[in-house]
Amino acid sequence: MPQHQLVSDAAPEWVAQLANDHGLGLVPWSRLVCQALQLAAEASQAKIAALVVADRQVEHLLVWPQLNFLTVKAKNRLAAGLAQGFFYNREEMRLSLQGHPWIGRQSSISWCAGRAVPAVPGCELGSIVVLGSGTPMAPPLVQERLRAATSLLAAALTGRPASGEQQGSALMSRREFDLQLSRETRRSERSNQPLGILLATLTSKSRKHAASDAEVQEIGEAVARLLRRGGDFAARYGSRSIAILLPDSDKNTTAGTASMLDAVIAPLIAAINAERPAPLGFKLVTTSVRGYGSLAAAGEPEGPETRPPPRPAAANDAPRAH
Fold this sequence. Notes:
Layout: H1 13-21, H2 26-43, E1 48-55, E2 58-64, E3 68-72, E4 86-89, H3 90-96, H4 101-104, E5 111-116, E6 127-132, H5 139-158, H6 174-191, E7 195-203, H7 213-226, E8 233-236, E9 241-247, H8 251-273, E10 281-288, H9 295-299
Antiparallel strand pairs: 1-2, 1-6, 2-3, 4-5, 5-6, 7-9, 7-10, 8-9
Helix pairs in contact: 1-2, 2-5, 2-8, 5-8, 7-8
């Protein structure tokens, strides 16, 4: 994932003000926003993405991948339908966004979608809008991808849960993970629904300077805050790993979550590395309920605290006699 940065003397005042409001410098703020825009565009198969910030009678835009800034004034504003999200095809764009200066410049665009970044009291976060050409994926799927991107951006910018959204605020223990994995495995087999699993490991080329317990805990807490769906679950898994359980998440959805986590955690890893003698890496491995036995081999040495639990029996398996 490219680490986008914006040069401070090229940024307009509204960008610098937002970075200050979030308690970040311009470079880390810009990196997080541009990563979120890239993720939103790629996940929804769009060509262009923009952060849109409403300011009285105008709208400010930071546009990806061009990384340019616009301030536009239009009667039909993009921000008008962003509270719950919107999806417009070509004809709906013409009716709803007629005369919008930015939209009017995009001659090859055939659809448009947007969603507000979840609000935190006292902190303006803006909205993400994507533009695409050709046949789009189903609108509900586009909205789900945008919801994930905006939720991750909100958590990364604020470090706090967004209002009105359920979210784990603490990293669970390995024992809790084993119990939850057993429950979700049985439920998955009964309902024939997918169950995604990720293993995040902090790696180091130097054994002497391996990740400390405090560093693993800090990254794990960040991962837990970034899981936005009810039922998603993160836990410490051994000395330097975090296991992530994603119920009802198929292979593609799990891979998308991994991509977003990887991008949003990257600045935190960079900040930790700035104070370390040897850098840490962040490795994410995607597996499934049928492959969770390979978690230890994926990045965590197997031992008493890291060996996966026995695979639970299917619901229709006959109980064994004792």
